[in-house]
Design a protein that fits this description.
The chain has 283 residues and is of the alpha/beta class. It contains twelve helices and seven strands.
Length: 283
């Protein structure tokens, strides 16, 4: 058979059609099939239309990542289109958008479902990047509680005492959820690695997306602005800042990076750990 007859299309799956998801799709889409998934049909169709108008090959699927059957269908649909090159999981909800129950269902269980559903289709070179948050890095959790977050079967995750919505406010639920994403990736990397794949989490700081802007307008907005002002870069991040890092993580240049988290926060966490005078830089 000729090379043209045996060549398979490369497929990139992006869950979440928000600011980061769209930026990632634009960065990774050229020459590949884009499978775009989002729970909001309105948002999904609008982003899919923009990407299609820009020349991308787009398959749009309405998917609630907390629903097992929908995520299973997403994975099977993507695999039927070609070789899955990357799965970039950006779908999630934030404290100003959701209740603790919704944060656990979407951010914790949803991430676990995506990693689980795509694992059977992993082949050499497949990479998953799960978008977590610097909130996970900043959330202290008893080390003994991390292993259950990383390894508990997906259908049993929401029953963990640490994830009981009755004991959580939205801020603590979000921080725990994003820490759970980080350790879930660690555990998943072992299974994916046996198939030749990699899994990494990426923890953004404060990013200028609709979700990020909603948080800035919310009850913690003042604190977040102060965090930006004190950071090493002194600026809010952009979706393209994150997409650029995702592009590297799915590239052959990152072939030795798996089972870990990359903090991309403009230096916010560092500034919180080692605060300086609020009077300005270099003082």
């Amino acid at each position: 058979m000729t090379e043209s007859a045996t060549r398979r299309d490369e497929v990139v799956v992006v869950t979440g059609a928000g600011g980061i998801g769209e930026a990632v799709a634009r960065r990774l889409g050229p020459g590949r099939i884009l499978v775009l998934a989002d729970a909001s049909e309105t948002q999904l169709n609008a982003v899919a239309a923009r990407l299609s108008a820009a020349g991308h090959r787009v398959h749009a699927l309405k998917v609630d990542v907390s629903a097992a059957a929908e995520v299973t269908t997403l994975a099977a649909t993507a695999a039927a289109l070609g070789a899955i090159r990357a799965v970039v999981h950006t779908a999630g909800v934030s404290p100003v958008q959701a209740t603790p129950e919704q944060i656990v269902a979407v951010d914790v269980v949803g991430t676990a479902r995506v990693l689980e559903a795509f694992e059977p289709y992993v082949e050499s070179g497949t990479v998953a990047v799960c978008i977590a948050s610097m909130a996970g890095t900043m959330t202290p959790i008893d080390p003994q509680l991390l292993e259950p977050l990383a390894t508990t079967p997906t259908d049993e995750l929401s029953a963990l005492a640490l994830l009981d919505p009755a004991t959580l406010d939205v801020a603590s639920a979000y921080g725990i959820a994003k820490r759970a994403n980080q350790v879930r990736v660690e555990a998943a990397s072992v299974v994916w690695g046996r198939r030749g794949g990699r899994v990494v989490s990426l923890s953004p700081g404060i990013i200028a997306t609709p979700m990020g802007n909603a948080e800035l307008a919310g009850p913690f907005g003042g604190v977040m602005r102060a965090m930006i002002d004190q950071s090493g870069t002194g600026r809010i991040g952009t979706p393209d800042d994150i997409a650029t890092v995702v592009e590297f993580l799915v590239s052959p240049g990152a072939s030795f990076i798996t089972g870990t988290d990359l903090l991309v926060d403009g230096g916010v966490v560092a500034a919180m750990r080692y605060p300086r005078s609020p009077s300005g830089r270099g003082t």
